[in-house]
Amino acid sequence: MLKEEHEVAVLGAPHNPAPLTSTMIHIRSETSVSDHVVWSLFNTLFMNPCCLGFTAFAYSVKSRDRKMVGNLTGAQAYASTAKCLNIWALILGILMTILLIVIPVLIFQAY
């Protein structure tokens, strides 16, 4: 038997008249900032009207850099701009694709 176990067995558990208190620590989880790099890369490679995909990719990389440094506010600002540019690149790319299919079909039917 260890010395501490013997003392607890002989003396009993410590009696403290003060109530037990506990401390709770809230650890804030790091906010996730989506940088839209994959979406921007897709728009850069496949649908790049008016270089919007490339510009969105540049903003996405800036957002990722800010996030790595710890500047979440700057990362969110760049990510928001990249998202807006990606949306416009996607919309214009889809419209251009539809027009490139519809216009030749209409011309072919006219002849």
Automatic annotation (TrEMBL):
Signal peptide: none annotated. GO terms for biological process: defense response to virus; host-mediated suppression of symbiont invasion; negative regulation of viral genome replication; response to interferon-alpha; response to interferon-beta; response to type II interferon; type I interferon-mediated signaling pathway. Belongs to the CD225/Dispanin family. It holds the Pfam family CD225. InterPro entries: CD225/Dispanin_fam, IFITM_antiviral_protein. Coiled coil: none annotated. The chain crosses the membrane at residues 37-59, 87-108. Keywords: Membrane, Transmembrane, Transmembrane helix. It is found in: Membrane. This is Interferon-induced transmembrane protein 3. PANTHER family: INTERFERON INDUCIBLE TRANSMEMBRANE PROTEIN, INTERFERON-INDUCED TRANSMEMBRANE PROTEIN 3. One of its GO terms (cellular component) is plasma membrane.
